[in-house]
Amino acid sequence: MIAKPTIPAPLDRPGSQIGKPVSRVDGRLKVTGGAKYAAEFNTPGLAHGYIVSSAIARGRILAIDTAKALALPGVFQVFTHENRPSLPWFDRKWKDDDAPKGSPFRPLYDATIHHALQPIALVVAESFELARYAARLIHVTYEADDHRTDLRAAKADAFTPGKDKGGFQPPPKPRGDADTALAEAEVSVDLNFSQAVEHHNPMEMHASTVIYHNDGSLTVHDKTQGPINSQTYVCNVFNLATDAVRVISPFVGGAFGSGLRPQHQLFMAVLAATTLKRSVRVELTRPQMFSFGHRPETLQRVALGAKKDGTLTAVIHEAVQETSQTENYVEVVVNWSGQQYKCDNVRLDYKLARLDTHTPLDQRAPGAAIGVPALEIAMDELAAKLGMDPLELRLKNYTEVDPNTDKPFSSKELRACFQQGAERFGWHKRSHAPRSMREGRQLVGWGMATGVWDAMQGQAVASARLGIDGTLTVGSATADIGPGTYTAMTQIAADILGLPIEKVSFQLGDTNLPMAPLQGGSWTVSSVGSAVKAVCDRLRDRLAGLAAGLNDGPLKGLKADELTFADGFLIAKSDPSWRLSITEVMRANDLLVLEDEARSIPYYKSQMKHALGTHSAIFAEVRVDEDLGTVQVTRVVSAVAAGRIINPKTARSQILGAVVWGIGMALEEESMIDQRLGRFMNHDFGEYHIPVNADVHDIDVIFVEEHDDIVNPLGAKGVGEIGIVGVPAAIANAIYHATGKRLCDLPITLDKILGA
Ligand code: MOS
């Protein structure tokens, strides 16, 4: 099954589909309502579940009276910890592909309340409205314990987490003596940072529609970033055979990490369907979207020391991040600070503090979106103290190797990002002094920052089926949460076999398809795309062999590398008039279909010798109203180095969306806890502010040329997360330039600007 194509298809030839701004192949379905989401699949007799959420943050349920709800005609059942069926005891049965170390949350397991809005009951009725009404008739008596949801109060008990889940690397050991170097530095800065909890807030709320079949098997329509992850979870928790559970998830209305772990509505819907032996849907309400994982609140300190010429002599970065009482959710927050710049004295420290909240959850560029802005704001402050241009300071300390590991980067075109981004923005026209670019009562400020994210790859398998009519269907059980996976995979397949885009379709979001990892970490193009390339390279080899074997054919004896694949033809490079269509080759060989499957495995050996990452330079302009403290981000230029860009149109959309989120993170987004209740107060779009059209102005995206043969066979690093990473810092730095105020607590709301 391991693909070893003799002649991989070259990707940079003229006419290549790769690199073309192809419009989304699923765009029409999406804008016409033809794309179906988890809560839109229907079946006769479908029952509807409504989740009852805990009113307290910590304690236990003493009594739960469901009699009134059950008495309503049309209510089928109310599930609680008291009447739930038997469930597994071992933690490992509840683990999923994104579970951190610890004990995963188990819905309806017992009377214990771990966090506010914890799901404590499920009402199942003939309609959603009836289930919701019945839920209000349920009376719960609690015994509340004191809760702790304040990270500042919990900070004193912070601890260093051990190594655990795949992606997490603890900070590297200190190098040199950063504290002494800081004390002796000619110029130094020492800043404290905080950033609020953010929720993912995808447009589509989490939902699962479980179709119950007479033989007890299930078809599960789930909102997920990994159908196989949901399938494994359901099979483990409910003790079902893999072939009795098929998870289908063709479209996801945004997720940003919220679908990396199976959410409790999936558990609830399967519980009800298997117990009641009928089809059930459970969909969360918008307020309930604040009842599970979130980007964790983090408290940070960054201290930098430098010589007068800007040479960094000390980097200290410390972070304390929240986790739950039951799991050690960890992110790589501080490690980037040892990687970004050349410096001999570096000390990085990362700790967790336990709160009575749900376990946090990966959210777009987890860790980097928090830690890198802290470093980049500190660099801006250092530049200000040195009287140096912030871009010059970064170039002064630029590094071609990863100082954490001394490994060279497989590629790092960050210099090109700086140059092209600065030129597009007009950075050289910036006046150095804060408050020097005023226009009337508007203070204009220009700021910049660097972004970084890992380039990762996992194993994946893809299948392909080529018909005699020249249509190709490729599939892999990945997801498309919005980045354009359908389109990019279609392009890769069409390119390698020389087929028009319209002749190729890509299938995903179905556990009947070959294995793919979770869609996350910006690794789908590298992982699944490499598998698609591998299987199409195999088909190409086989077609070439079939054509060469036709003794009376024009391509007799030619090798695969002596052929071009274009417009459905195999064409001799030596004389393009010697050609056969795919149909002719297959007909002559009595074949109606040609099928194959291939697994792509990362180039571990060469990857291990290198640091792999995407990089970016962000330039931002703000206008701050001096009287009102309001901020408009009037211009952003994001220059990105992410290897080969498969589709510049969808990739640009990724960066645009991420910049918008960066504006939100810098200025607006904040899930606020009422510490007395231990509960998020602003749990809807009325009070949780995200950027709207009026907040979004000019955003310019540049992809710089970057060639990389090590990162994966496509040379494509992925762009799902890099777009957000430096944005909050560039905006905070622009606000400093506009106002002279150094603000380090995100979001920077107008009260902070006026109050500072
Ligand atoms: Mo992303 S946070 O890896 O879905």
UniProtKB/TrEMBL annotation:
Sequence ranges assigned to domain Aldehyde oxidase/xanthine dehydrogenase a/b hammerhead in this UniProt record: 32-146
SUPFAM superfamilies: CO dehydrogenase molybdoprotein N-domain-like, Molybdenum cofactor-binding domain
Annotated Pfam families: Ald_Xan_dh_C, MoCoBD_1, MoCoBD_2
Protein name per UniProt: Aldehyde oxidase
Organism annotation: Azospirillum palustre
GO molecular function list: iron ion binding; oxidoreductase activity
Start and end residues of each stretch annotated as Disordered: 1-22, 156-180
Superkingdom classification of source: Bacteria
